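Entry 0007
Protein: 7-carboxy-7-deazaguanine synthase
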Amino acid sequence: MKNEEVLEKVNKGVYLPLMEEFYTIQGEGFHKGTAAYFIRVGGCDVGCHWCDVKESWNAETHPPTAIEKIVDNAAKYSDTIVITGGEPLMWDMNPITKALKVKGLKTHIETSGAYALTGSWDWICLSPKKNKLPEGRIYDEAHELKVIVYNKHDLIFAEEQAAKTNADCILYLQPEWSVRDKVVPLIVDYVMKNPKWKVSLQTHKYLNIP
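Output (structure tokens):
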């Protein structure tokens, strides 16, 4: 297949730059502790300096893969499918979520919201970043808001983002892993004073699983 044909399929969302796919335990947020199949899509220009999957940023290093193949693999393992990145909304998510729904699978996304929301989702985890703020509509659609806390100023950012979400959105503060010893006490104190927030931990790292 010619490069132009591949690019066209990627642009239409029928191929996606697939970094990795794996069956594991969801480690973060509302669904932590539950089994899920993760599809990690390459490509991200948000550029968080503390990102622990920087190898996902360059989409060109990840093979364009037909969504039929991705969906067939996913269906073998779980009824809950989490699409993450990178930043998955750089690509049209309508084709893959439609294909997942045809198989009766639940669709979850983890996104910064930096691009327009596409796809049909049972659960949207919005994790906004200061570098590139979310597109407006996703605030109305998000089921959970997960703000990564690297320093105390991120708590101000968290409140700014929470003010834009819908009334049913669950609010989480999650310590950035590399500074967790410093920020966990800060988060605990903040949540106790502001109980509309909950603490999210990267429990998969404590469990030493992907």
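Curator remark: Residues 3-147 form a domain with the TIM Barrel fold (CATH 3.20.20.70). Residues 2 and 8 are 10 Å apart (CA to CA).
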